[in-house]
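<context>
A single protein, sequence plus fold
<entry> Chain with its tokenised backbone below
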Amino acid sequence: MSTVSVDPDLSKVGIKENSPKGVIDDESVEEITAESYGPLKVLCEKAVEDLFPGRSMIVRPGLIVGPHDPTDRFSYWPGRALRGGEALAPGHPVCKVQFIDVGDLAKFMLQLLEGGGAGAYNCICDPLPMGDLLAACRKTAGGDIHWTWISDAFLEDQDLAPWTGIPMWIPELDPKSGGLFQVDNSRAKQAGLAMRSLGETVSRTTDWLRTRPKDHKWKAGPSAEHEAELLKKWHQA
């Protein structure tokens, strides 16, 4: 189990399995940071391939989503829809996002194990518009949620961090990671990766969210108070 982040140049659209991989100068480093994460995964891949040449399977997911996700990086959005009211939406509706439902990932990995499919596979859904994701969250929640789209420039001026400050948000013109949500998944699909509908993934996640404690401490996304402040500033700008 690896990651699409093994590629050192996440600015490229259409990253493939055979794209160049990240390198770390000191291979004894164990601290995981934004800079070391990808190259350390590359070393993990190499260790497996050295031990099992020609018969190893390297699965490289993107963001893994669905029930029981502890990071809240995807769950924040269906959770926010459940709260209703006016909500912050980042960038604009056509901005692309990518992820993989944990159930689809698990099924594909079992297929590989049973079929003996060696090699590396980018396991991620087709790129889809953020607007489609938020529309699916609104439909599933069935409430009065209203998304207000706020520009990348405004969000960056508020020192909001991509991924955690605003989940699944990468500024459209980010020179370093603009390709992270447009990774090539064609090899995995040819090998049998099948993706359930967006609505089903959102519904599964929403059903699970309804079972969590009301006082759950979200690990990603702005607090209700911070979001209200941001929306007020946006309307006054």
